[in-house]
Amino acid sequence: MFYSLSLLCTVPSDILYPEIKEALKNLEFQNRSNSLNGLLVFAEGNIFLVLEGEKNTVELAYKKLQKNPILSKIITVFKNAIEISTIAKPIFLICDLTFHPLNIDKSMKHLVSRMTPTSNAVKEILKAFAQTANKQNTSTY
Questions:
Q1: What's the whole-model pTM score?
Q2: Which residues of 47-81 are buried (b: 16+ CB within 10 A; e: fewer)?
Q3: Recorded GO terms, molecular function (predicted)?
Q4: Which of 115, 120, 126, 91 is closest to 8 using CA atoms?
Q5: Is 27 exposed, middle or buried (0-12, 13-18, 19+ CB in 10 A)?
Q6: What range does the domain containing 49 cover?
Q7: Residue 88 and residue 83: Cα distance in Å, rounded?
Q8: Potential cystine with 102: which of 8, 18, 74, 130 (Cβ 3.0-4.6 Å)?
């Protein structure tokens, strides 16, 4: 059975950006190695994550995330089954909004769950992240 899980979390404020960037790369590598599809968006010390794949693989990845010291205050947004038989070519996308804007349509395009009722929740969270990042980026210039 395929499964989709989404969560929000915070990066502790004492962790410096280079360490965060390295942790994001490691998360990307781990999720791609496990053939997970999904999206990770980082902005202003917060992370929004969507994982899609075999239920057991998604749940194992979630357990590892809960033990990751760079993630705190983890809130599950949704967990649900996806009615598909396979993910053709899993893609795990990382969007670090520190220096790059978010293209919501492009980010949603590769998610399998984009055609489910939860997709509206994903879009709204992505919009909030994009607005937060835009405010921060314009106030620093």
A1: 0.84
A2: bbbbbbbbeebbeebbeebeeeebbeeeeeeebee
A3: blue light photoreceptor activity; FAD binding
A4: 126
A5: buried
A6: 2-139
A7: 14
A8: 130
The count of domains in the chain is 1
Identity of the residue numbered 48: F
Q: DSSP E strands: which ranges in the chain? A: 2-10, 37-43, 46-54, 72-82, 92-96
**Residue 73 is encoded by which pair of tokens?**
């205050």
Q: Which residue has the tokens 């947004």?
A: 77
Q: What is the CA radius of gyration of the chain?
A: 14
Grouping H, G, I as helix, E, B as strand and the rest as coil, residue 60 is helix
Domain holding 92: CATH number?
A: 3.30.70.100
Predicted confidence (pLDDT) per residue in 56-86, tens digit:
999 999 999 999 988 999 999 999 888 776 6
Whether the CA torsion 21, 133, 109, 114 is positive or negative: it is positive
Answer whether 30's CB lies under 8 Å from 21's CB. Answer: no
- State how far the Cα of 35 lies from the Cα of 15, in Å rounded to an integer: 28
pLDDT tens per residue, range 24-54 = 999 999 998 998 999 999 998 999 999 999 9
The answer to whether 94 and 64 have CB atoms below 8 angstroms apart is no
